[in-house]
Design a protein that fits this description.
Blueprint (H helix, E strand, L loop, with lengths): L4 H4 E4 L12 H4 L15 H11 L5 E4 L6 H9 L2 E6 L2 H11 L4 H16 L10 H6 L2 H14 L5 H15 L18 E3 L4 E3 L6 H21 L5 E5 L11 E6 L14 H7 L18 H20 L1 E11 L6 H7 L2 E13 L6 E12 L1
Parallel strand pairs: 1-9, 2-3, 2-7, 3-6, 7-8
Antiparallel strand pairs: 4-5, 8-10, 9-10
The structure holds S-adenosylmethionine.
């Protein structure tokens, strides 16, 4: 790797280290970025700035770990073509819904029609799986299943599936302070740290279904006003194995990190409700795999393999831009194995404020090219 880390390191980039005042939550979760919660995404403003710095105007970007689709959505806003790959089918559904062009009139008519029929008691609740029975109160479950049966009657079934999943997430039998990683269903009333009083687990889903349907209409309409007419492609698959539809002008991505998050498990309710394919065994760095020596070695090999095939798809002079909190210092080896040379590395200060994971930390932006 030509220059050493020390020579390349260019320190804290204050322009990428926004405070809450500079960049309030409603900006970070603008339009479709808040269609459904997703743990482990990066913020759209960071992606916009990385495009400005490292992707030519009118270019084509690839994200091999596309997650909830932040790169793809921002590519549409910035006037770039994009391709996103993810191993988790729910993430691909979410990306599709965020990025597909919709006719706002048809969308609104259909979604309001579902709400009207739902309010009249239409729809049929099918027999639930044991997981659904355990995680939802009987009335909430009946409402979710009835909504699901109505959703299949429309052109925008996928949009309604995302609404359904979001409502299900909120209606699970969990405590208010443990929506991210609930371990067991919360059946009884409990002392709530968030609200400082006794709270009860949710019993209905109806109000969430209504609220999120209306919110989704507004968010998709807001995005339709700012998106540009560019190509976007979502691919469900393992980025180590796919034949990539190159060429690309840049790769912009935030890979999974070892032992931190289970990307399938965090949306288990959606897999159960929507009957989606589960490919968790191919997730790189899943929390379930832990951080043993063998797990870290498999992680290094997996990310290097994926980045190596991305590098093969790059146009001459194209850059690979990776956002990562590399506290185990794995990326020098990963880049080398992927046939990449580090050109620039800057750091940004991340302000985390929410939930039990609150605290502050730094993440790096690594900019590499083919060796
Ligand atoms: C850190 S997240 C990316 C988040 C994304 N930047 C965003 O803003 O939503 C990493 C993603 O890599 C995906 N992933 C893990 N292993 C993969 C594999 N073998 N092939 C493709 N995607 C994979 C996970 O499902 C997860 O969605």
């Amino acid at each position: 790797m030509g220059a050493t880390q020390e020579q390349i390191y260019s320190g804290l980039d204050v322009d990428l280290s926004w405070s809450e005042g500079d960049l309030p939550e409603r900006e970070r979760t603008k339009h479709v970025h808040r269609l459904h919660p997703y743990l482990g995404k990066y913020i759209p403003q960071l992606v916009e700035e990385l495009f400005r710095r490292h992707v030519p105007a009118d270019g084509r970007v690839l994200d091999p770990f596309a997650g909830s689709g932040t790169t793809l959505v921002q590519a549409l806003e910035s006037g770039l073509d994009s391709v996103g790959i993810d191993i988790a089918s729910f993430n691909c559904l979410l990306m599709d819904v965020k990025t597909r062009e919709v006719n706002p009139f048809v969308l609104e008519r259909e979604l309001r029609d579902v709400l009207a029929r739902f309010a009249r008691g239409e729809g049929v609740a099918a027999v639930p799986t044991p997981f659904l029975e355990a995680w939802f109160a009987p009335v909430a479950l009946e409402e979710l299943l009835r909504f699901r049966s109505l959703a299949t009657d429309y052109e925008h079934t996928d949009v309604l599936s995302v609404v359904l999943a979001r409502a299900a997430r909120s209606a699970r039998r969990t405590s208010h302070f443990d929506l991210d990683f609930p371990q067991t269903p919360q059946i009884e009333p409990y002392w709530c740290y968030k609200h400082r009083r006794e709270c009860r687990p949710v019993e209905r889903a109806e109000h969430f279904l209504r609220r999120y349907t209306l919110d989704t209409i507004e968010r998709l309409k807001a995005f339709a006003r700012v998106r540009q007419a560019r190509e976007v492609r979502v691919i469900h698959g393992d980025s180590r194995e796919l034949e990539l539809p190159g060429p690309f002008d840049a790769v912009v991505t935030s890979p999974p990190y070892p032992g931190l998050i289970d990307y399938h498990e965090q949306h288990r309710y959606a897999y159960e409700l929507l009957g989606l394919t589960d490919r968790r065994a191919s997730e790189i760095g899943a929390a379930e795999q832990g951080t043993s020596k063998a797990a870290i070695a498999a992680y290094v090999q997996g990310i290097a393999g994926a980045l190596n095939s991305c590098a093969d798809g790059l146009r001459l002079g194209g850059r690979v831009v990776i956002v990562v909190n590399d506290r185990r210092d794995l990326y020098p080896e990963i880049l080398e194995r992927a046939g990449l040379v580090l050109e620039q590395r800057y750091s940004r200060h991340v302000n985390r404020r929410t939930g039990r994971r609150s605290g502050e930390y730094f993440e790096d932006v690594l900019v590499a090219r083919r060796s």
